[in-house]
Amino acid sequence: MSTTLSQPPKPTPAADAHSNEYDSDVLQYRAIHTGALIGLLLGIVSVAVVFAGEASLATAIMLLPIPVAGFLVSLLALKTIKANPDQYVGRPAALIGIALSALFAIGGTAFAGYVYATEVPDGYKRISFLELKPDQADERAGRPVPQPIFDAWQAGTPVFIKGYIRPDTVSSRENISEFLFVRDSNACCFGDLSKVMYFDQIQVELTNGLKTDLHEGRIYKLGGQLVINPQNLNRGPGYPVFSLLGTYVQD
Question: Nearest to residue 45, comparing CAs of 115, 105, 92, 1?
């Protein structure tokens, strides 16, 4: 009885081709450059500069480091990918990150500048809640109201200011003419009114038949005659030091 030893099967041409393709893929594997992904993400987030432009030019400028960082990170990633094409991929992501960062940095700042230059009606003086807060010199002099604000009140100069309507101070969401105007929304729900400082709130009464609607989270632009009530300094919530007889409103 004889024993026959079988030979191992020879790989077919198709199997050889598949094996070579697999080996080639392994050898040619390249990682996506992390910097390209980070730069792309920063480029997308840079759209915040545009939205901030509606709030204030200062806020838009404060957010500029985001697109600047996105541009630099994407540019560095692109250079690294070009220098090491056998190690990294991600060139499209880096290019998009550069483009978005530049677009939102330039476009957002330009938009914020345009809004700042055109939003104040003729005859009104721009003020901000920050200017209502006494600084150290005012405190040393015993002035609860900064002198420039006090002078504007005495001169009867119409003022223009931006802020938010506090929802819990109105009884309706439509056709409202009286409300408490505040500096910010405290990120979500305006917080306890007793914790809102007197220089961060203005009691508003729209005049001349003006009305507006409540849109939570929206920035409002108001103009009118500022009134100061120093007798309310120590009376607590419900007795604002600043009030405004509104003659202009834009939401």
Answer: 105
